[in-house]
Amino acid sequence: xxxxxxxxxxxxxxxxxxxxxxxxxxxxxxxxxxxxxxxxxxxxxxxxxxxxxxxxxxxxxxxxxxxxxxxxxxxxxxxxxxxxxxxxxxxxxxxxxxxxxxxxxxxxxxxxxxxxxxxxxxxxxxxxxxxxxxxxxxxxxxxxxxxxxxxxxxxxxxxxxxxxxxxxxxxxxxxxxxxxxxxxxxxxxxxxxxxxxxxxxxxxxxxxxxxxxxxxxxxxxxxxxxxxxxxxxxxxxxxxxxxxxxxxxxxxxxxxxxxxxxxxxxxxxxxxxxxxxxxxxxxxxxxxxxxxxxxxxxxxxxxxxxxxxxxxxxxxxxxxxxxxxxxxxxxxxxxxxxxxxxxxxxxxxxxxxxxxxxxxxxxxxxxxxxxxxxxxxxxxxxxxxxxxxxxxxxxxxxxxxxxxxxxxxxxxxxxxxxxxxxxxxxxxxxxxxxxxxxxxxxxxxxxxxxxxxxxxxxxxxxxxxxxxxxxxxxxxxxxxxxxxxxxxxxxxxxxxxxxxxxxxxxxxxxxxxxxxxxxxxxxxxxxxxxxxxxxxxxxxxxxxxxxxxxxxxxxxxxxxxxxxxxxxxxxxxxxxxxxxxxxxxxxxxxxxxxxxxxxxxxxxxxxxxxxxxxxxxxxxxxxxxxxxxxxxxxxxxxxxxxxxxxxxxxxxxxxxxxxxxxxxxxxxxxxxxxxxxxxxxxxxxxxxxxxxxxxxxxxxxxxxxxxxxxxxxxxxxxxxxxxxxxxxxxxxxxxxxxxxxxxxxxxxxxxxxxxxxxxxxxxxxxxxxxxxxxxxxxxxxxxxxxxxxxxxxxxxxxxxxxxxxxxx
Length: 808
Prior knowledge:
This protein is of the alpha+beta class.
């Protein structure tokens, strides 16, 4: 009788044994190889939000940290002043941020992305091992997760906080599972650390989704424990979970509480419910959802034809994760987490799709907080996480399903996908017609589809061919031995990196990128205190902040709501020429912002040819009126890097310190209209919104005054004034209640004036020393709470470990 042949599946060797450090070493090595272009100390990762905004924030932060040995509370360079901590200026309190004290800013920014990509893989590996999965699937799908589009592609838009939170997610689940399974509150406390760090990253909306997912996971694990041990244990674990959440909030309190107050009271982002249409903007269209599994189906960057305005990232999860996730549903069901991660996948798929599925309206109506957010597509990182966990589970079951009926069904599905790819390649016109009817709503998008249609069949063929190769390799080699790792890892990296590397670009020389141009050199010659109006120059950019020049614009997205109303743009967060009508139509608004110079590209004298484009014509007409010779004079024309610029000086320049001797009290809603009145003279009249505790009496003597600055720091300004009679002193910087005012060392009341500025009453004529000081006592208290919370957890965990050591 012939001996029956058996397939060799291989056996685990020392590299993938349960206690081998090799998977961790390989994860680190792969992370460094992937980022090889960003390892040079000269280069900086090309991250759009970081280039236009984040680099300037962090450079300013680092300079204050090095020179004043403190964290700044106020940013004087953007939008006529912003609170630095309260308004979110990036990862101020995140542990890596303090490396800027000793390292160049761009190097820390680079390594933020590198390290978080690596720890995403390490934390995922820890979690999958905690799920009792073998080393090989845990390793493979840790790598798959760390290079998923929800992490790797976010480098290009510069969304560092999103990367950090996606990296911390598996660690939160790891600690939570251990806490429930061991019924030990110390694991819950350990879980509060990554949750708290996520709050310090910071990104409120991403953390909202993480807290939601963590709550769901606790309910799942807690329910299993309830079935095993009853109500008492579940109640105890629920208290531990509440403790974890509270402690995480304490860790993040130093950033969370000031930001909550600011957003609730002062920011356009705290406007509350703006309606369903607003909440569903930047949802994930179905065509982009398809692209998450079929690479570049709807394209990205210049090849994007989907329904969002543009696409500079991808949600692509790769081929291996969804392919092996299918095998999680085959064979005999085991007691594992498949059902939960299917739920998590479905729930956050609906969340990410947002307005493109009617089910999202239920979330909008029922779930607290959803109405305050838009761009629900960012929740897709939880979908990617779920797919990779399911992929690891399916991989562990694959050996039992080889050659089975279920395996043949999956193989047939792969064949159908290849067939769809071939048909879409051969039948271009019918497929374009189908895509157009389902997804496309504008002519520009249709043109983009025509230009890049080849990526549609390529997306299906790519998935099908890689799937076929993966199934062949896994069937031949088995999934329980190390021999399968090299071919599958190679296919995975080719698949993911070929997409991810489109989003990893670098700036070869940071210093040359931010070097002074002719405009900056001209402005720096004027050493006075003033602001610049960057009209058609570095629009939506913080280039001037990098060089220490104060601007009435910039790039932030969380500036004062009142400031946006003042410039005439209450519904938006950006500062662009077509979004600041009050500054163009009413020169008084520009003058009061302490604007001394306007920088613009040359505006044609004859704009009649633009009459066929009403919006452009209206904008150019307003600009020409603003720059009229009665208001501004051209003082410099220069050519810089192929672009021409003109610099205009304000003839009606109002200095930073202004005295007036007349006050009008008006309701808030009437102030801006009064300022538009031609009879309003900001040099004589100040507009208040509540009755002051002083009275200004008319006088035949003209008001005369002088001032000189004695000290100017981001959080503190001191200057000397001399005035001939009682008057109201306006300091032309944004009003914020945390600023305290002092005259000759004595505290005085500070009033909101002319809608956005601050003022104080100078009662006595003569010389005085005036101070405006940002009160930062609460940050010291909140910072101490955050640090002590982390230290207490670490000490408690260390003490517990010491107690568990066996005695001799």
